[in-house]
Amino acid sequence: MTLVILTKGIDLSVGSILAFAGAVGAGLLKFGIDIPSEGINIGFTLLGGILAAILVGGILGWFNGFAITKFKAPAFVVTLAMLTMARGFTMLYTGGFPINGLSESFGFIGTGWFLGVPFPVWITLVVVLLAVFMTNKTAAGRYIYAIGGNENAALLSGINTKRVKIIVYTISGITAAIGGLMLTSRLDSAQPNAGLSYELDAIAAVVIGGTSLSGGKGTILGTVLGALIIGVLNNGLVLLNVSPFWQQVVKGAVILLAVIMDKTNKE
After folding, report:
1. 189-198 pLDDT, tens per residue?
2. Alpha carbon distance 24, 19 (integer Å)
């Protein structure tokens, strides 16, 4: 989401992509793929199921980027459409029922420990380090900031802005799929309604972390801090026994405050 917003875009589909990718990974691991005409079933190994889920997320993210750049459609509208489509795909794939009873090896992704640290933390650390390296040490990272700062100037300077945007939305889909695998593993269940409103938490973490909605300004580490703030806020409100309805109000107010501060600083 940080990379998307840095290019002055938005991705509202990450929650639905998370759910669909998680369901696909769980379904392939548990049921495989039936080929009725041949009377056979193709089973999937743990690695195969994981890669298939990530591929699904990448394809849906790529489609977002392609539609936005090819047809010059607003990112808000395209990703809103994908939010609905991916949720529909999830319901169709699962039949509206959760996929339960997954393997212990798959469960390690969300609940296992490695060197005394929860395995999801290691996954998050790897993703964060790769994103930091990309934004700070590669040409693609500089292109992302340039597009967010002034897309026309970036285009005139020779940057293939369409390709960069497609890559960014593809990465968004891939990381949503990784999140879907982690959540599905932790719950030991692929829930058709998983990831509802997660896109709002993702955007909130990015904005609170200092990334400008106007693009071109922000850091990955700032988003990590924003995510920690959102996590502490969520847990704190639960511990204080605050009504879930008021929790939504508080989170919305925090997002609004962050946006106002960003606009105030720009002026």
Report:
1. 999 999 998 9
2. 9
DSSP class of residue 209? T
93 within 8 A of 16, measured Cβ to Cβ: no
Contact 93, 180 (CB under 8 A): no
118-123 contacts at long range (C-beta below 8 A, 24 or more positions apart):
120/182, 120/186, 123/178, 123/182
102: region left, alpha or beta (phi > 0 left; psi from -120 to 50 alpha): beta
Mean pLDDT for the chain? 93
Task: Please state, in angstroms and rounded to a whole number, the distance separating the CA atoms of residues 82 and 64.
Answer: 7
* Eight-class DSSP state of 212: -
From residue 128, alpha-carbon distances to 17, 68, 70, 195 in Å are 20, 26, 30, 20
- Percentage of the chain beyond pLDDT 90 is 76
Contact 107, 185 (CB under 8 A): yes
Residue 34 has pLDDT above 80, yes or no: no
| Cα separations in angstroms, 162 against 194, 216, 251 | 31, 16, 34
Assess contact for 22 and 184: CB atoms under 8 A.
yes
Nearest by Cα to 250 from 241, 239, 259, 242: 242
Q: What is the pLDDT of residues 221-243, one digit of tens each?
A: 999 999 999 899 888 888 988 88
Query: Does the reported pTM lie above 0.85?
Result: yes
Single-letter amino acid, residue 250 = V
Q: Which two tokens stand for residue 200?
A: 């709002």
Residue-wise pLDDT tens digits, 135-159: 999 999 999 999 999 999 999 999 9
Q: Report H helices in the chain.
A: 2-6, 14-31, 46-70, 75-94, 104-111, 119-137, 139-149, 151-156, 161-187, 198-208, 220-239, 244-266
pLDDT at 167 over 80: yes
